[in-house]
Fold each of these.
Amino acid sequence: MSAKGNPYDNAFAESFFKTLKQEEVYLWQYETFFDVIERIPYFILDVYNRKRLHSSLGYRPPEEYERLLAKNSSRECMVC
């Protein structure tokens, strides 16, 4: 077990929420809860997954990286 409140236990989630706050929440002035419901999914699905480059993925968006990974794994199975 780890210490309570240790941010290194959940580094991926901490990193994601840091990015969400800095690149979306702090830049928009939400006036209603509906604004939040509308903007957050857009940021996650369109910006974070399709446009934003991730250094851990070779500076590719997650969707592009997954396509390349699937393409390469299907090639390996054809050789099997």
Amino acid sequence: MRECILDKNLARCTCTYEPCPRKGRCCECIAYHRASGELPGCLFTADVERTYDRSVERFIALHQKGRR
């Protein structure tokens, strides 16, 4: 397994939840959101990510409308 390159991940991380302890640690972020029945914020547009609605239903609805 490849090692996490925190600096590189942080530069690309679009999560706006600043106190998040998983910021830049993608494998931890994915596991956390998956356990909560959600998707990570990086899979949403910036305006939707800021709502913190990271539900699978919201993701599907956005993509059914053709919004990417």
